[in-house]
Amino acid sequence: MRRLLIVDDEPLARKALMRLLRGLFDEILCADGAERAEQALAEQEITHLLCDRHLLDVEPGERLIIRWRESYPSLLVAGLITGDVVDQSEMPHAVDGVFLKPFDIDALRRFFTTDQ
């Protein structure tokens, strides 16, 4: 089962991503921050993750992804979304893709359909 977890503290971003990625996954879950994301990861077998780089009051998204991929082996693919211009080559190995806001929906859909 392909299950995506979207982690973003902006409700409109979560809603837009859910709508845009619908149909690519058996289930899409959302979390508004790291604590709820960790809860979902512990309770569900999440296979795909899309995490905002700048969540309120926590470490950067790329560090969360490193920790979550070490702790949850079911997590096969992880992407980072950000408003910052970043070079994918500067990201940790645990981050499979980086996507700028506003979203390039075609790039996101390709990313999640090729499964790295």
Mean pLDDT: 92
- Tell me, what is the CATH class? Alpha Beta
Work out the number of β strands.
Answer: 5
Beta content comes to: 15-25%
Taken from the alpha-carbon principal axes, the silhouette is globular
Structural class of the helix and strand makeup? alpha/beta
Helices and strands, in N-to-C order? EHEHEHEEH
The CATH superfamily is identified as: Response regulator
Helical fraction: 25-40%
Q: Assign the CATH topology.
A: Rossmann fold
Main sheet summary = 5 strands, parallel
User: What Rg do the Cα atoms give?
Assistant: 13 Å
Strand order of the largest sheet: 2-1-3-4-5
Question: What's the CATH architecture name?
Answer: 3-Layer(aba) Sandwich
Quickly describe the structure.
The protein has helices spanning 11-21, 34-43, 61-71, 105-114, and strands at 3-7, 27-31, 48-52, 77-82, 97-100.
Keywords:
Rossmann fold; 116 residues; 22% strand; alpha/beta
Q: What's the helix and strand layout?
A:
Blueprint: E1 3-7, H1 11-21, E2 27-31, H2 34-43, E3 48-52, H3 61-71, E4 77-82, E5 97-100, H4 105-114
Parallel strand pairs: 1-2, 1-3, 3-4, 4-5
Your description of this structure?
This protein has one domain: Rossmann fold (3-Layer(aba) Sandwich), CATH 3.40.50. It is 36% helix and 22% strand. It has helices spanning 11-21, 34-43, 61-71, 105-114, and strands at residues 3-7, 27-31, 48-52, 77-82, 97-100. The chain starts with a strand and ends with a helix.
